[in-house]
Amino acid sequence: MNEPVSLSLARLRRSCAECSLQQLCLPTGMNGEDIGRLDLVARRRRPLAKGETLFRPGDPLRAVYVASEGSFKTIVVNATGDEHVLGFHLQGELFGLDAIGTGAHRCEAIALVDARVCELPFDNLATIAAKLPSLQQQLLRVIGQSANHDHDHVEVLARRQANERIAMFVHGLSERYRRIGRPANDFHLPMSRDEIARYLGLVLETVSRGFSRLHEDGIIEVHGRRICILDESALLAAANGGDGGETPEPRKRSNA
Amino acid sequence: MNEPVSLSLARLRRSCAECSLQQLCLPTGMNGEDIGRLDLVARRRRPLAKGETLFRPGDPLRAVYVASEGSFKTIVVNATGDEHVLGFHLQGELFGLDAIGTGAHRCEAIALVDARVCELPFDNLATIAAKLPSLQQQLLRVIGQSANHDHDHVEVLARRQANERIAMFVHGLSERYRRIGRPANDFHLPMSRDEIARYLGLVLETVSRGFSRLHEDGIIEVHGRRICILDESALLAAANGGDGGETPEPRKRSNA
DNA sequence: CGTCGACTTGACTAAAATCAAACCCGGTGG
DNA sequence: CCACCGGGTTTGATTTTAGTCAAGTCGACG
Q1: With helix as H, strand as E and coil as C, how does B209-222 read?
Q2: Burial class of residue B2 (count of CB atoms within 10 Å of its CB; 0-12, 13-18, 19+)
Q3: Does B256 contact chain A (CB < 8 Å)?
Q4: Do A154 and B154 touch (CB under 8 A)?
């Protein structure tokens, strides 16, 4: 608590670099004093085994999380026991914001592989954000970005064909791997076909056929969960309806 | 500026009551001083004609809005000119939060009928929220609720059959009308079949058939955009797959 | 080497989109 | 007053898409 700010700062920078949460931990224009205060946000790492649950619906909002190692899925299970995947969270990505509205989580977060999270206790975060405009700004930005993701997800589910959804999914993952400094054209999927299907609103057979189709078309190489992207622009084209058949006269804006 | 707090307070209470934004303007436990500060959030009303645009993609985040009269839709138009409806915003409901992530709006907001909005300039809001924990709390809560709506929307689009989506939509609207003190079992839809379809990820014919089906089953009365709910519990049942055919063995949770 | 789970592939079916035609209703103008 | 638009809506017939059911195949691991 009484350590000099410089020390905290150095420690924070190191651990945040590992943790990849540049968005929140190392906001631009944050000065030493501010970072010193950020130190008050207790941070500890917790390991989880593959399949282990980090939080479940109804759990009170204690913290938001960053996948510091490994990856996670967030799911909702409806009354009929049917599971839907809301999102996948790769290394360095923030999740757990869903509880902000009600104070309790609405979905369940599960480790896809052996993993590790960095916790940011939310009450500390909120308290400090109140004193620290730049952090408040960052917090709102991060929340907003997560909402943007949801909007994109909605748009995909509402309008895109199965093969487009799959191409978009692969392309999107590729971009995210690039962002965290991993090979963007050769990676391993941390999730099953079934989980991809439940994320894209399809069934697993359709996802499998989609991958096969992309393979046949020479766009990607598939060996189980190992994906190599051979033709990035063709992938992007496929994601926008550019497969085999010609664009079938898109539905125009309503004029109600 | 130098008016006694009590006056501001009275004025605010009156205008907020009209505006129905209880969530943000009249948060529980806000004292007189706090409300006095809230007064600094400039608020003015703006009328819009049916079909008029309030903000469009790329517009900088200036304010968040409450539909103080009439209703709105928010849409995104993709590269092919295809329109998707992200949400409908009835009287008293807050919208425009989509710009928080990037500082610029990503969607377009259009008045469905002649309408009026209450603007809450965002920088003021953020500044004051920083000084006023209870408002910060409310702001986060409202944002979170909007994210929750998106999650629900995603789940509907991913998993529900056309008829279920339509029943859920009608039921959801009914609840929202109840909340704002309007008849919940007899109301007028402010949007066209086409707009409903674009919200639910269907085509207008499918929506029309869905309404007809609910009518045939004696669950609702339909005359164009006028809807009467005859059997609320049957509507809820239809929204959960309880129509004609028996539940076809729901897809269980993945065990990957 | 055999087993199990994840994945792929094929044949068939159900659901919703598409195409196309009528219908209803409020508004306009003869 | 009534005929005639025209948009939004309903309804029908047909096609397309993805889901379902059912075998297989592949690969990891004991």
Answers
A1: HHHHHHHHCCCEEE
A2: exposed
A3: yes
A4: yes
Q: State whether the beta carbon of A160 lies below 7 angstroms from any atom of strand C.
A: no
To the nearest whole Å, the CA of B58 is away from the closest chain A CA by 14
Q: Is B225 on the interface with A (CB under 8 A)?
A: no
A193-200 and B133-159 helices cross at what angle (nearest 10)?
110
Question: Could you give all domains of chain A from N- to C-terminal order, each with its CATH number?
Answer: 9-153 (2.60.120.10), 159-246 (1.10.10.10)
Beta-carbon separation of B192 and A247 below 8 A: no
Residues in Cβ contact with B98 at an 8 Å cutoff, skipping those fewer than 6 apart:
A144, A147, A148, A151, B74, B86, B105, B106, B107
Using the predicted structure, report yes or no on whether residue B6 has a pLDDT greater than 90: no
Task: Inspect the interface and report whether the beta carbons of A141 and B101 lie closer than 8 Å.
Answer: yes
Q: How many interface pairs between A and B have CB atoms less than 8 angstroms apart?
A: 193
Question: Which phi and psi (to 5°) does residue B119 adopt?
Answer: -100, 140
Mark yes or no for CB contact A83/B251 under 8 Å: yes
First CA to last CA distance, chain A: 61
List C-alpha distances in Å: A222 to A39, A214, A227: 44, 9, 5
Q: Is residue A17 less than 8 Å (CB to CB) from chain B?
A: no
- A196-200 LR contacts (CB < 8 Å, sep 24+): A196/A166, A196/A169, A198/A75, A198/A83, A198/A84, A198/A85, A198/B158, A198/B254, A199/A73, A199/A84, A199/A85, A199/A86, A199/A87, A199/A88, A199/A169, A199/B158, A200/A156, A200/A157, A200/A162, A200/A165, A200/A166, A200/A169, A200/B158
Give contacts of A240 with chain B, Cβ < 8 Å.
Answer: 79-80
Residue A142 has what pLDDT? 85
**Structure confidence at residue A141 (pLDDT):** 84
Nearest CB to A98 within list B140, B151, B200: B151
Give the predicted TM-score (pTM) of the model. 0.87
Query: In a structure prediction context, what are the per-residue pLDDT tens digits for chain A, which is 256 residues long?
Result: 444 444 444 444 445 554 444 555 544 445 555 555 555 555 667 899 999 999 999 999 999 898 888 999 999 998 888 899 999 999 888 899 999 888 999 999 999 999 989 888 888 787 877 777 777 777 888 888 899 999 999 999 999 999 999 999 999 999 999 988 899 999 999 999 999 999 999 999 999 999 999 999 999 999 999 999 999 999 999 999 875 544 445 556 654 4
pLDDT category, B32, cuts 50, 70, 90? low
Q: Of chain B residues 74-103, which have a CB less than 8 A from chain A?
A: 75-84, 86, 97-103
The residues with which B221 forms a beta bridge, in sequence order, are B228
The answer to whether the CB atoms of B198 and A240 lie below 8 A apart is: no
pLDDT digits (tens, 9 = 90+) for A32-67: 555 555 555 556 678 999 999 999 999 999 998 988
Phi (first) and psi of residue A109, to 5 degrees:
-110, 125
